[in-house]
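Invent a record, attention on tokens:
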Amino acid sequence: MACPAAPVHYQRDPLRTTLTNVLGTLHCLELARRQGVGRVLIASSSEVYGEPEVHPQWEGYRGSVSTTGPRACYDESKRLAETLATTYFALYRTPVKIIRPFNVYGPGQRIDDGRIVPDLMQAALKRQPIVLYSDGRATRSLCYVRDAVAAMLRLLLSDHDGEAFNVGNDEEEIAMGALAERMADVAAPPRLAVEYRASADHHYTTDSPQRRCPNLDKLRRATGWQPEVGLDDGLGRTLQSYRELEAAVGR
């Protein structure tokens, strides 16, 4: 989890992004092998599926990923990190599990993260219009951080070494336009306006998946885990956490 996951951040230094995911993972796995570590959890990403042709995405789907586009430094290095993990398991029986998080959000996420939920929170805190730099039709399935952490811990303590698991929330796949409208309601009163604008970054939507939703059957069978926090509740909790942080620092 050492690599930034927001395109606005990881695209600033694509070489460093690639090396962080590849060499960082290699060093962790080699240390685990040398020290005889009992459990290792490698954080991959739902981005390994690229622009998927299968919905929802399941762990056996190989994805449709560009090797040369603006997101390739992140997407492809995460895929190679998975290869390293499974290779260490095959060669050395290193007890490693792989997780593929799907759009995790919640308290503690940096407000300048650059992804959709922090951007929505900034608008709500500043009482400004919610701005989307796309047509709003792309979908995501958002997972509240407490649910994601619970799934990760269950997997870490399981015996499913050498395997990859989706981690997310499959109960609601929502378009970004609808998410903005939902946030406008959560932040009310008064209700915030939602605006659509063109991004100054001409690569803003390049290779950005139009649909993203996990198949969680494998995770449920392995751990009995189930997401508990719904979208409205999660957005409300997250907004409250930012408000409390603002009050604490006296802004």
